[in-house]
## 1
Amino acid sequence: MQLQKTLLALCLHASVALQARGGTRGANALQAATLEPPTRASPTAPVFDQVCKETGITLSRFMIETAIANPELSELESIFSSIETATKTISNLVRRSSLTGLTGYLDDGNINIQGEEQKKLDVITNDVLKNALRFTGRMGVLASEEEDVPVEVEDESAARYQKEVLVEQTSGKYVAVFDPLDGSSNVDAGIPTGTIFGIFEDNNAECEVVEGSDVSDECLKATLQAGRNLVASGYVLYSSATHLFMTLGAGTYGFTYDEHIGEFVLSHPDVKIPARGKIYSTNEANRWEWDQPLQDYVTAIQKGEGESQTKYSARYIGSMVGDVHRTLLYGGIFGYAADTKNKAGKLRLLYEAAPMAFLVEQAGGIATTGRDRIMDIEPSNVHQRVPCILGSADDVNELKSYYAKTDKSADIYQG
Ligand code: AFP
């Protein structure tokens, strides 16, 4: 009894302390202002008036409170629970891969639909995430970077979308798109990697799965939605710590995995990207093949001749989740632009650029091709690539101003 009283006192005390340092704010403050009007009403962000010092706010509690505040989002609770389980597993697989023989490429040299050789971890992490999501009972369609089971060439939909989409059931309300282990080419060198995910509503009533037959056009169409339709998105970074950053359209929230209690705990409430940074992050080896406006912009910030008159530093991991995570926290600009060899850049619209764009916008940043808002691009192909430049609003707007001075017809990317 005495112990219970002491714990309660600790919890209540912690609640006051967290509020005092602004860690948890009121519902209105948590409704992040997006730069562009969202197409759906913003959900109400959860409010935590009591926080236990021993556990903090776990992701499970965050989702329970979210469901109470927004009953229409209650099904997301089990989806996030499955993402949580899967990414804890992936974190463990990545950490131990040098000890468990999970480094390197598949022995049979499997090539995925992108033409990239698959690593053992690409395949295993895809299975982990796919299986976690399919058993939530909430999913209509799952599309992953690594799902490359060939479909018949004569199949019209296969030719158009170049790739199969795994359809598990039709009763589910949601569509999940994901890259299970982004940056996996880095993983054997101990460099950060990550999982990226996006959740859409399955708004295509015509999507029907007939056992034993190919995926229908309707089911594929349910997957091809613009980023502005995303209901949720996020990433999990596997690095010095495992971080899960997510948005449900009412701000961006960051959780850190606490191995002592086995839970993701809220560590970065209502993340706001600095309006301007002093870091640029891109694969500069491609610079001579970029659009001229981009070359001119990077030259200006390198010389301290940009709007801020500050000489920028370069930081580039080559692993999108790590580079975006640093950009969110420190500010600056990250991008993978079009170049003359890769006319749409390298990053995939559906399961890399759009989910990250949603997250960055919800933190007050911008994500663009150089001219167009990433969130407004309608995909025509599951594996479509897109130039993607994102980060601090002032930095990205400055870059956009270089493009605005030139004619779009001169751009490499004509999408
Ligand atoms: P891998 O998953 O093949 O390592 O690719 C990672 C990635 O898709 C993205 O995470 C990086 O931002 C980008 O590619 C790096 O590409 P470059 O190696 O061409 O710089």
Note: Residues 116, 182-186, 283, 318-320, 336, 346 surround AFP (CB under 6 Å).
## 2
Amino acid sequence: MNNNFDVIIVGAGPGGYVAAIRSAQLGLKTACIESRKTLGGTCLNVGCIPSKSLLYASEMYYKVQKEFKNLGIEATGIKVNLSRMMGNKNKSVLTLTKGVEFLFKKNNISHLKGKGTILDNNTVTVIDDSDKKETYKTKNIIIATGSVPTSLPGIKIDEKVVVSSTGALSFDKNPKELIVIGGGYIGLELSSVWKRLGSNVTVIEYLDRIIPGMDKDISNEFLKILSKQGINFKLDCKVTGVNLVKDKAVVDITNNKTSKRERIEADKVLMAVGRKPNIGEDIIKLGIKLNNQKKIEVNEKFETSIKNIYAIGDVIDKGPMLAHKAEDEGIAAAEIIAGQAGHVNYNVIPVVIYTSPEVAMVGKNEDDLKKENIKYKIGKFPFLANSRAKVNSETEGFVKVIAEEKTDKVLGVALISSLAGTMIAELALAMEFGASAEDIARTCHAHPTHSEAVKEAAMAVDKRPIHF
Ligand code: NAI
């Protein structure tokens, strides 16, 4: 193989592999380095994809037990075969990671297997499993090394009793007692999985609300829904220690307001207090500029402080740590390297929590707008008044549209619905095109669909919903 490239990407997660495909499409001679055995990064191997497989399977189990009877379907002898459920998850992961491998071949991308180290802005080395080292020259480098789970001071993740999301996606039996530290995305999705499969789940959250960045109305409603499903919440509580006693964990917590202390025992503890950028020694040695959260600083062209070295995804100081954000940055960075005008609109990045019901948002929430002193109006519509949701017994949740007071321009939308993750795409598109609430209200929405609630919420901005 010729060891000279136009672009070498370090990391084959959703940011890196998409950047590689787009670079190759644009005629750049492209290589992508990955140390994991399979392509696809955290998302495909131990994140988005396996978690969605378990969320789907456990939701089906829950529904067949609790909801089918109302539909006139009587099922008996329903039980979980966890090893089969895990096998199905592993098969989905394998199929999708193989899919990326196929796309690499199709696009003539060199897949460099091993650990990559950036020596300078034109030189990268790769050490493979057998310690063989190869040196490559390149005109451009894209850092797409993603992120790793964080823990709390003094608490070690052993992936046996105290686990990260990786461990919690592979339990060989459902823990009787599961404590989840952190009421964010990972904490709530995995709480849902294990609660449905029979665990007693307690979520400990430091702040006084779950998903702190979320619209307050949605956060409050979401908490009610999850509590009704049987998940226990201890909000406003600080974990002061996690100790292993025999094969159990003893978790000490203190209430931030009352200072009341409590000690709870669990079979497993999931640490879900966030992730940190995966910054290698090479990045430190090169002196690539980091911000005070140890994220790589990039400009609007994804250029780092060193010429020809770009960075995208979870390692950079822009936007949320989300796979689809990284993908869009990968496309934009490749286009910029190829001399085009790549761009990511950070005001319109949808966020979805894949619980049941799902939660989704795009744009700003009320707190953001208050801080920015922007005057706004709100339209809300509950799924209780949506015919399709009613027919399907999916009446929990609502749509909330926030529009600028004077111009009626949509500034943000948040919703809770069984289909929120799919429905948010319409709103992201509307916002990309600068739509007003009136534009959405006057767009014909098919009947009977959950999406009619979006149109109704847009009409409610002008206080004229039809069905509420
Ligand atoms: P997160 O940032 O979403 O949530 C962490 C939670 O832990 C926050 O609510 C925070 O207040 C709480 N916390 C922090 N310190 C604590 C302490 N000492 N005690 C108790 N609670 C504490 O992080 P999470 O859930 O670990 O997810 C990591 C990343 O992965 C996120 O950036 C998220 O965007 C991404 N992700 C996205 C998903 C999706 O899009 N559906 C699914 C899973 C992960």
Note: Residues 82-106 form the longest helix (25 residues).
